Amino acid sequence: MKVHQNTLYVMSQGSYLRRRGETVQVRLEERTVFQVPVHNLHSIVCFGNVACSPFLLGLCGEKQVPVSFLSRTGRFLARVQAPVSGNVLLRRQQFRWADDEKRSTRIARDIVIGKLVNSRILLQRALRDRQVPSDGVSEAVSHLRALLKELSSADGRDQLRGLEGSAARRYFAALNDLIVDQQPAFRFSKRSRRPPLDPFNALISFLYTLLLHDCASAAQSAGLDPAVGFLHDDRPGRPSLALDLMEEFRPFLADRLALSLVNRRQLSDKHFRHSESGAVLLNEAGRKTVLSAYQTRKKDEIEHPFLGEKAVIGLLPHLQATLLARHIRGDLEDYPPFVFR
């Protein structure tokens, strides 16, 4: 049974990571500021001007600890990891299924169902637990319910993507009503990326980056190729399967956490920087706050809805990747998406 381990996030500019025996040592200005046994780590993520020794990268490859390099603002740059583990027959089957429109549509449909159900549950909980404007949120819930019925008759992945896009627009339009504190600083009118144009977009974009990293690691650990997906098309450099896996977790993990950070005033406008071009990004203090909350959230325990077993949230992407691998092997008739209660 896989055990949840921590991700080491290194944000201090000028840091140098090196190997000391079986430990990872973080050096800054010729001082050791942190040291941790490599077997305690699930992965390492470096932001900006952070360097790693070749010996450390070799150790991480040997111990199956991927090292990712992101820009200072969180844009993915590169990833160093060991060769894909697992049976090559599984990956060959994954590639065949990705080229099979019928099979890939079936998996893509399950993924979109998971995303839409979780989006609807998030909105329903907000109506039940908080004093939020009900008209727009209720309409979005009804729209998502109707789209879920249409998914069963969707003909091909293009139509599935169209339904998913319609659901996302209505869901994001209602999300602003769930921001019950710190308006108008965190007003959310629509989804904007590359770059984010407001603080809430910057926040969820950063959380999606962290979630994508975890899902890519999960696919790798299950013996799957993170680049070959079923809902998302293949593109050079795109981790399509990781993007598939993260869809059902966006509302449950990233969006819920973003709303919590804003409504509990753990983040404020001072945690963001606004550029002359209109881009809005988390500053260093903001990123540290988000990373700390994300790590804490991943340690919470829930019951997996399909397996019926207790699991920490940080392991959920790995459990879903394993279930997908079992489906591709033929052990499960369908892929059971994650749906939170």
What do you see in this structure?
With 341 residues, the chain is an alpha/beta fold. It has ten helices and twelve strands. The chain has helices spanning 54-62, 88-99, 101-129, 134-151, 157-175, 199-221, 240-247, 250-263, 284-298, 316-329, and strands spanning 6-10, 15-20, 23-28, 31-37, 41-47, 50-52, 67-70, 76-80, 272-274, 280-282, 301-303, 310-312. The strands form four sheets. Strands 1-5-7-8 form a four-stranded mixed β-sheet. Strand 3 and strand 4 form a beta hairpin. The model has no long low-confidence stretch (mean pLDDT 87).
Summarize the structure in short.
The chain is α/β, with parallel strands linked by helices and 341 residues long. The protein is 47% helix and 16% strand. Strand 3 and strand 4 (31-37) form a beta hairpin.
